[in-house]
Amino acid sequence: MSRTLRRWLPPVAAMASLSMVASLALVVGSGTAQAEPTTAAEAKVELEKIEQEHSQLELQYNQVHQQLTDAQGKLAQTEADIASQREQVEAARVQVTQIALQKYQDQGVSSAAVILVSPDTESLLNQMSTMQQVEATSMTILQNYEAQSAQLQDLERSAETAVASVQAEEERLREVEEAGQVKVDEARAVLDRLSAEEAAALAAAQAAQEAAAASELGITVAPAATSTGTADAPASTAAAVVPAGDGSRASQVVAFAYSRLGYAYRYGGEGPSSYDCSGLTLVAYRNVGVSLPHRADWQFDMGVSVPISQLQPGDLVFYYPGISHVAIYVGDGMVIHASNERTGVIKTSLTYSGYPQGARRYV
User: Fold this and answer.
1) Which residues pair with 11 in a beta bridge?
2) How many domains in the chain?
3) Which residues, including other chains, have CB under 8 Å from residue 201's CB and lie 6 or more apart?
4) What is the SS3 assignment for 156-179?
5) pLDDT tens digits, residue range 309-350?
6) Which end of the chain has the least Cβ crowding within 10 Å, N or C?
7) Same-domain pairing of 67 and 15
8) What pLDDT digit, counting tens, does each position of 61-106 carry?
9) Which of 193, 228, 261 is the last residue in one of the domains?
10) Of 165, 164, 159, whose CA–CA distance to 80 is shortest?
11) Residue 243 in contact with residue 252, Cβ under 8 Å?
12) For the chain, how long is the longest CA-to-CA vector?
């Protein structure tokens, strides 16, 4: 929490919205109430469900992160406005102080006294007119001070509201991260329960599903060579064979994807050492001058729709109903994507989760 945030800490603790809490509870708890998988087939179904729920949490994280950024920006602007307003209030206060001092010095002089000491009528009228003008100016200065002070109080109340909003978004981010970790732990628990024979059966079933989906889509899938990393350091990518590029922007996107194989996964990650799915695609395209938002579903709304059977290297492929995951197509029926905390950035079949929801081309 920044010093700015601490300085404006409001008396009421910020809470996440009930709808957000409820949605997180549904996602976190949806996979835990069922019986534990006892076969490779059951484990496969459970893992697929966990992966989809994890991708939905990533989508929520990026949405909340953007809301936090907006709230922080509003708070910063409000604080800048407060600083400027305080200067105006102080300037008005100085004027009011001068008026008060002048009135104190002149408090013994009444209108009757002015009449008695005036040498003639013209002089009297001039003095009375001057006094009225001074009084009117004084009233204007006093009213301005009151208005400026009231505006400052409004801004200070807005700052308290902005701080509460920042705190609420920070709490929501924490909840989404915790929910994501639950999904990671669930997946690891599923895999840990499998024997070596069951794990082999699971891998075979996954390969068969990918091949069947690719066949229906008319795509030939090359054997996958995956590489995983940790949160601390990416794994070696020496074994990755990067296809020769033609210098086009699409080939540069593919080259970037290969250069990040083995890097760690992190919610909201945009590099340089960790990424989430839309963070990886965002940076890959940023490097070739294309601006994409940090959300898979928003990226899906951009670019030109491409049939899966007509994919070209550099196109983006999207997954799961509602579009909550995205990968970079690199040719030969393969994609590179920031999968999850267990695997990091990997290269795998574009049909790894069954049928993609669609694809987009941006260059």
Assistant:
1) none
2) 2
3) 40, 41
4) HHHHHHHHHHHHHHHHHHHHHHHH
5) 899 999 999 999 999 999 999 998 999 999 988 899 999 999
6) N
7) yes
8) 888 878 888 888 888 888 888 888 888 888 877 877 777 776 666 5
9) 193
10) 159
11) no
12) 119
Q: Among 245, 269, 107, 93, which residue's Cα sits nearest to residue 177?
A: 269
Q: Which has more pLDDT, 91 or 17? A: 91
- Name every residue whose Cβ is closer than 8 Å to that of residue 355 and which is 6 or more positions away in sequence: 213, 216, 217, 308
Place of tokens 């008695």: 116
Q: Say yes or no to pLDDT of 241 above 80.
A: no
Residues identified as active-site? 277, 325, 337
**Gap between the Cα atoms of 143 and 362, Å rounded:** 58
> Is position 170 within any domain?
yes
Interhelix angle for 121-193 vs 18-29, to 10°? 10
Could you list the residue range(s) of the whole structural domain that residue 138 is in?
3-193
Tell me: pLDDT of 37 over 60: no
What value, to the nearest 5°, has the Cα angle with vertex 318 and ends 308 and 272? Answer: 125
354 and 237 in a single domain? The answer is yes
- pTM > 0.70: yes or no: no
93 and 236 co-located in one domain = no
Query: What are the phi and psi torsion angles at 95 (to 5°)?
Result: -65, -40
Are 33 and 145 members of one domain? yes
In this structure, the answer to whether residues 184 and 52 fall within a common structural domain is yes
The answer to whether the bond into 272 is cis (omega within 30° of 0) is yes
Domain containing 335 — which CATH number?
Answer: 3.90.1720.10
Find the DSSP H helices in the chain: 3-7, 18-29, 40-105, 111-117, 121-193, 196-217, 249-259, 277-286, 296-300
Token pair for 67 = 């809301």
DSSP 77-125: HHHHHHHHHHHHHHHHHHHHHHHHHHHHHTTT--HHHHHHH-SSHHHHH
| Residue type, position 139, single letter | M
CA distance 173 to 62: 9
